[in-house]
Amino acid sequence: MYRMIKLKTVIFFSIFLFFTIALSSCGSKKYTVKSDSKASKAADAMANLKSKDLYRFITDWTGVKYRLGGLDKKGIDCSGFALLLQKDIYGHGLPRRSRDQADAVKKVNQSSLKEGDLIFFAFGGGVVDHVGVYLNNNFFVHASTTRGVVVDDLNLPVYQKAIVKTGTLN
What we know:
Elements: H1 2-27, H2 38-47, H3 52-61, E1 71-72, E2 75-76, H4 78-90, H5 98-104, E3 106-107, E4 118-121, E5 130-136, E6 139-144, E7 148-153, H6 157-160, E8 163-168
Antiparallel strand pairs: 1-2, 3-8, 4-5, 4-8, 5-6, 6-7
């Protein structure tokens, strides 16, 4: 009887040890997000912002839907978003329309953009009809007509083809 209990104990601990080793090896497997994914790069751009107030402002507005003429969390358009961001973060006044905002900035080269500078687009021809705010590493934040307030990659061909002016209020 004593041998039987001892044998069962040895078998139990052997099985326990086997499963402990097997399960711990699964736990050590590392899962990583592909570092070159769009979401990863956008997250890096946000993490590298110099202004923590700008970071909080963007995270607070991210996902708010687009609404032409909107200026609140129920919906906002691109020029309204740029206007509020410039006012709340940098204390700068801006006209309400993106076309007029483009006239109010001092032109800078795209390669010289700094955090908070404005980027103007003409998707419907040669007239400015969209604005975004530059972050860093060729990422910018804007109120997209289809996705609301988002951080996007300025290198995407759709944006590169439509850029008509980049400028600063500083």
